[in-house]
């Protein structure tokens, strides 16, 4: 069995944009000598891994008040993330190397499991190896995450494990993983919507309890007292909010919808931003309004539309929401798109006439764009807007998830429907395939 049209288009678009990125980036840097020419993958070496190494000195004072009071860049994550950092920093000189190895093992392990599921559904081994190999080799979100050494990979793995448990119908285990992920960063909380749509209400409650317990227990564990740790975490998160969410900072790497708002305000009201404090004061009411509108719109869309969609569409819609709606969302968060990407790959392979699945090819083209760098994006006021272009494509992909049900069509010859589980929503039923019980995306 050869690659289906959606998978072919994905590889073609992905390779095309990588080629353009490297070509145009090289011309800007080496021929035109533009000051804006540095961009991933052309970042200087001194910028590598700083999302990890910036905390190295601070973690020498873990469990002490100096952990929060030490001068320099503060700890800007929720409390549970500090425990993960501390686990790696306990390895001493091998901390960074161990984290990088962890990133590769997690990502490649998920790719191996997905490839196995693809082969079990009939795709040839050679085609699978080429497709998975090229997709991982040209994964801009992953390489950008490694380049920054960002802890997002741990959160991604938690969500992947939660999604695996969800497909195996281990509702409480899925809720536990989603709850822990939400304690790391708030927005993975939306994945509990998968359980809510399936009326697994007690599992949703369990996920909320896990999230609250993980957060409170982590604050207590950090110490030296609960009050000092709670205040220190609050100040660190406030620092990030002030200096990133409320300022135009590395906006070309930021595909949040709010980054578009900031960019437009910067263009039309630039005279108001003579100093960073002016940006903070001006953007604050806009941020509050944006969060209120995003929350209300998300709830309306979920109860009106998303919860009635096939499961593949639910996963796509909720995943896009987690990387589009936060007030700051840098490009390493795009690794979460590999979760619905894997689901749609299995839909594409299992569908006998993939041309009948409306929007599937276009969805893969959008994901290919999002998984390539676009370093050649146009410049406005000396600021790259690749992130804003990605935000627009994410919005388009979200609309696709709402308007194009990814269902398994009947065979043209016999028009036999795949068996459906009575308690599940109509849509592609992975439970009809029982050949690969150990896959990341179980049948």
Overall description:
The chain has 443 residues and is mainly alpha-helical. It has one domain. Helix content is 60%, strand content 1%. It is built from 18 helices and two strands. It has helices at 5-30, 50-53, 66-69, 79-89, 95-120, 125-137, 140-148, 152-167, 171-184, 192-197, 201-222, 226-245, 257-268, 276-304, 311-324, 338-350, 360-370, 386-403, and strands spanning 379-380, 383-384. Helix 17 runs antiparallel to helix 18 (386-403). The longest helix is centred in the middle third of the chain and has 29 residues, at 276-304. It starts with a helix and ends in a 40-residue tail after the last helix.
List the topology elements.
Blueprint: H1 5-30, H2 50-53, H3 66-69, H4 79-89, H5 95-120, H6 125-137, H7 140-148, H8 152-167, H9 171-184, H10 192-197, H11 201-222, H12 226-245, H13 257-268, H14 276-304, H15 311-324, H16 338-350, H17 360-370, E1 379-380, E2 383-384, H18 386-403
Antiparallel strand pairs: 1-2
Helix pairs in contact: 1-17, 4-11, 5-6, 5-8, 8-9, 9-11, 11-12, 13-18, 15-16, 15-18, 17-18
